[in-house]
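Why does residue order matter? Because the sequence determines the fold. Keep that principle in mind as you read this record.
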Amino acid sequence: MIDLAQLRKDPNFFRMAWLDRGLSIDVEGLLALDAAVRELKTQSEQVKAELNAASKAIAQAARTGQDIDAAKERARKLGDQAKAIDESRVAREGALQDELMVLPNPCQASVPVGRDSSENKVAAQWGAKPSFAFAPKAHWDLGPALDIIDFERGSKLSGSGFVVLKGAGARLSRALVSFFLDVHTLEHGYTELAVPFLVSPQAMQGTGQLPKFADQLYACRDDALLLIPTAEVPVTNLHTGEIFDADMLPRRYTAHTPCFRREAGAAGKDTRGIFRVHQFDKVE
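Structure:
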């Protein structure tokens, strides 16, 4: 989420950063909403201090036998005023939170500015591009021919966007998962985690899936739980709310999970094969 202190300090930096990402954001409106929230917090503190003093005045008047009706009426009005201020603050804080939750972070200065992926720049290449003395087959042709991928039965079981791996295909998938987990844990010192595949909406907010990608998530009908689109969600949220001493960092984790994505709005994009499916395995 955007750091409000930084936004107040250098609003033009954020304005230009968002423009570079193709977004025209009302920065002045955002800052005005933030200022209103802070002003209401100040008013709330002042009124509650007056209410506290008024309550003490009632007690003092009662002890000395004075008329307390006027003091009680003042306390009542201050209580109503404090309630109204807090209700307004909560509403504006919610509106501000909703705005901030959908704003993207500024890109690093090294990221090239472009309209879309067609203007990406190649940062590095590794290895040599393979060449063949024959016309290579697409995986959606090769997989069924080798009897290791079954698209038709995947669709029969769950609808479009699901596949069945069988025989050597299932074994290859399992071997790749084990290979990457072993490399991360045995060669690079990561700790392997086996995490839940269902998480709370708060966990999805923690990694930015909510609210922006709400239409891409599978939700349980009877529980406030969502299927994870990546192991990043439970792994990143593992230590939410915890504080570590510096000598306890960094924490390095790896995890294998199935990933579930609705791919809403992806009609016609990479629809053949296993590039854009609703369920797949990944090591994070």
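The mean pLDDT is 93.
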